[in-house]
Amino acid sequence: MVLAAGLGKRMRPLTATRPKPLVEVAGRSLLDRAFDTLKAGGVRRAVVNVHYMADRLEAHLRARSPGLEVAVSDERAQLMETGGGIAQALPLIGCDPFLSINADNIWIDGPVSAVRMLSERWDDAAMDALLLTVPLARANNHPGLGDFHMDALGRLRRRLPGRVAPFVYTGLQLLSKRLFADAPAGPFGMMTLWERAAAAGRLYGVGHQGLWYDVGTPAAVKATEAMLAAA
Predict the structure, then answer these.
(1) Domain of 58?
(2) Which residues are in coiled coils (predicted)?
(3) Cα separation of 132 and 148, whole Å?
(4) What is the number of structural domains in the chain?
(5) Reduced to 3 states, what is the DSSP secondary structure of residue 204?
């Protein structure tokens, strides 16, 4: 599941003329870079949700084959947010568990593909969600205070308000469809389901072994291009 339906408000003015997933970093769009991450892990099929400038996204998918079989989940009528967008697309997702990836970050794999690492770490008996995380100190361009604490077994709990947490969610996760049982109707964020999974001890994380860049603003685009050039 490729989450590509956001409004991209923080990326203005670049998103005045294009949807955020089509903003380019070092000559390649964020959407195509997300596809690159999936293909490196052996993924063959993706579902992409669309809302803001949906026609532009669909035209991009038709003109530039991502090397994957792609289906579109149409949110033109209503933006469903992260959790609601995945819930709406579940009938198009033919596997369980399945991956979800944000189209506004950049992942550079370390010794092992991040996608394959999530797959190898997955324990269906223990997990409803497995999030790829990165230490706050290595979260390039990330403006926040961290998202989660992680125990020795990899179980996650959310950062408390006003505190700092050592791990940042990278936008890539492996999810069981059972996480969406009794999910709210309409738009909702993934945190709703993450907190439910955490309360049951079924929200886990694994550390990214490569590089990660938060690319949510025009300034972050420039900074990321400079870091990629240096690397």
Answers:
(1) 2-230
(2) none
(3) 11
(4) 1
(5) strand
Cis peptide before 21 (omega within 30 of 0): no
| CATH number assigned to the domain comprising residue 187 | 3.90.550.10
Mean pLDDT of 65-75: 90
State the pLDDT confidence band at 66, using cuts at 50, 70 and 90. confident
Scan for tokens 């026609």, then name that residue.
Answer: 55
Q: Which two tokens stand for residue 132?
A: 């790829």
CB 117 within 8 A of CB 183: no
pTM (predicted TM-score): 0.95
For the chain, strand residue ranges (E) read 2-3, 24-25, 28-29, 45-50, 69-74, 98-102, 105-108, 129-135, 148-150, 156-158, 167-175, 203-207, 211-214
Q: For 31, phi and psi rounded to 5 degrees?
A: -65, -45
